[in-house]
Design brief:
The strands form three sheets. A seven-stranded mixed β-sheet has the order 3-2-1-8-9-11-10. It has a two-stranded parallel ribbon with strand order 4-7. The chain has a two-stranded antiparallel ribbon with strand order 5-6. Helix 6 packs parallel to helix 8. It is of the alpha/beta class. It has a single domain, classed as Rossmann fold (3-Layer(aba) Sandwich), CATH 3.40.50. The protein contains nine helices and eleven strands. Pfam families: Methyltransf_21.
């Protein structure tokens, strides 16, 4: 996971999008809002650290259902007050889920409906921060992306950037990204494929801030 993020730089986008996104975040902050990054499937916090480094105006919610991983997020991110660990699984409701250990390590843990592990919705996360403005959402949640996007289509479509790891290879025939495509249907989106991650950029949001020159 460390090499995937910092060596392979899986969440790197073209400088055009990174620069424009930072313009968006800066203008949100100047207007008194809080640009929010939701890092769902944060594991031990490496992705949150990476996002904090590249988007310094944003608050990052590092959402992770595994309590052992949450403790590591707290330790790894202790010097980054803009990173806020959230012990929960991102899901379609807040009534709890069952956490199943992955065969290949904690990064492969999966959740299913019903259980004692805390769960939270996209809307609840945003409602928990005064002045929150959806900025970036990163979903690496081992197949739960379908459940999340189906339950919160308006919330998922409100982010300027969506980073998602598809898991149809793991769940063939599930159409795991269909709810995401439904949510953003009709929106003008730029698409970037970076290793295992699909990145979608809302062109309308980025164009609204196009008066600021972007140097490539």
């Amino acid at each position: 996971m460390l090499a995937q993020i910092f060596t392979a730089r899986e969440y790197d986008a073209h400088p055009f999008w990174v620069t424009r996104l930072n313009v968006v975040a800066s203008e949100i902050a100047r207007a008194g809002g809080v640009p929010v990054i939701i890092d769902a499937g944060a594991n031990v916090g490496y992705s949150a650290l990476y996002l904090a480094e590249h988007f310094p105006d944003a608050v990052i919610l590092a959402v992770e259902p595994d309590p052992a991983c949450v403790r590591l997020i707290e330790r790894n991110c202790t010097h980054h007050p803009r990173i806020r660990p959230v012990h929960a699984a991102l899901w379609s409701h807040g009534h709890g889920v069952d956490l199943s250990a992955g065969d290949e390590g904690s990064w492969a843990n999966r959740v299913s409906d019903g259980g004692a592990t805390p769960s939270v919705t996209l809307d609840a996360l945003l409602d928990g921060i005064a002045g929150a403005v959806p900025f970036i959402v990163k979903l690496d949640i081992e197949g739960a992306e379908s459940e999340v996007c189906q339950a919160s289509p308006e919330a998922i479509a409100s982010f300027a950037c969506i980073m998602i790891e598809p898991h149809d290879w793991m769940l063939p025939g599930s159409g795991g990204l269909a709810p995401l495509y439904d949510a953003v249907a009709g929106k003008k989106m730029d698409t970037l494929i970076r290793d295992e991650t699909l990145m979608l950029f809302d062109c309308a949001v980025l164009e609204a801030h196009s008066h600021t020159q972007v140097h490539l």
